[in-house]
Specification:
With about 300 residues, this protein is an alpha+beta fold. Helix content is about 45%, strand content about 20%. It has a single domain (about 5-140, about 190-305), classed as Beta-lactamase (3-Layer(aba) Sandwich), CATH 3.40.710.10. The radius of gyration is 19 Å and the shape is globular.
Length: about 300
């Protein structure tokens, strides 16, 4: 029974004031833990996993070639995470490179190249419906969200094209003013990046791990990319003996998501989907709570396997 584990996880969630959603599946036993797992939450960059699945499914049916070369242009450059925004126009890379950068360092510029390649946000929604994952809602690409954030600060910025917005940047503000603007956007005026439930994202991860959402070759490639994630401050933090393939999604300090699969020789894969919003406190405390949750879940998985 995992009642003791559930109590421990609830204590960790209650210790940090925020809106929590959790879904866990121990694939060896089929046991599940769910806390608010069917609530639609802001995914932030976790939505890049559904986009990754759509990209590889399109490759499987011959609709695109991940070896196709694309050229970096200012109209695709996005703020936030990623290195491509800092590179000179004219840089050439492949769609496969974009997919990798989109996951391992959450590159927002690479993400919008991937959205264009699959046919836009609606194509990702259609892919999720095909897979029976109805509780994933892609609400726009990266530009749409950054444009909405900019418009919440200065409505005129919302009228700019992607290239114009990137060149203009956000208005000059003090750090305190910027934080207040971001807080208003999250709690009052803004819109989600995209939405999904913790359970639905967990189900998609399970499909990737069981070759259930694309060809075996494509699912293996997705597992490899997710395993190269460079962020180590949440799910993997206290798991040095395990391999954690995962994807974060952030709007610091309000949203700190992390979803992934823990693998080790000691236990069957464990799926964890943690989505957190509405947080106003210390970012590091929130991150550490998620890391401690993963540690407890992994320890239980090992114990159950040995039992």
């Amino acid at each position: 029974m995992h009642s003791e584990l559930e109590r421990g996880l609830r204590r960790l969630m209650l210790g940090v004031r925020a809106d929590w959603a959790l879904y866990v599946k121990f694939t060896g036993s089929g046991e599940e833990i769910a806390f608010n797992a069917d609530a639609m939450m802001d995914t932030m960059s976790v939505i890049k996993i559904p986009l990754l699945a759509a990209l590889f499914r399109a490759r499987d049916r011959g609709a695109l070639d991940l070896a196709q070369k694309v050229t970096l242009e200012t109209r695709y450059k996005r703020f936030g995470t990623g290195v491509l925004q800092y590179m000179d126009d004219g840089m050439v890379f492949s769609l496969g490179d974009a997919a990798t950068l989109m996951i391992i360092e959450s590159d927002n510029t690479a993400t919008d190249y991937c959205y264009d390649a699959v046919g836009g946000p609606d194509a990702v929604n259609e892919t999720m419906r095909e897979l029976g994952l109805d509780d994933v809602e892609v609400m726009g690409n990266g530009f749409d969200w950054f444009s909405a954030l900019a418009a919440s600060i200065d409505p005129q910025l919302g009228e700019l094209s992607p290239a114009e917005l990137f060149r203009a940047g956000y208005p000059e503000m003090s750090p305190a003013e910027w934080e207040r603007a971001r807080e208003r956007f999250h709690f009052e005026t803004g819109r989600p990046f995209s939405r999904a439930t913790a359970r639905c994202i967990g189900k998609l991860l399970e499909m990737i791990w069981t070759d259930g959402c694309a060809s075996p070759e494509s699912c293996a490639a997705m597992r490899k990319i997710l395993g190269m994630q460079i962020s180590r401050s949440r799910l993997p933090k206290y798991l040095p003996e395990a391999s954690v393939a995962h994807k974060t999604g952030d709007f610091n300090p309000f949203i700190a998501n992390d979803v992934g699969v823990i693998e080790s020789q000691a236990a069957a894969p464990i799926i964890i989907s943690v989505l957190v919003a509405g947080h106003r406190g210390i970012w590091e405390n929130l991150e550490d709570s998620i890391a401690r949750m993963a540690e407890k879940i992994w320890e239980y998985g090992i114990y159950a396997q040995r039992g």
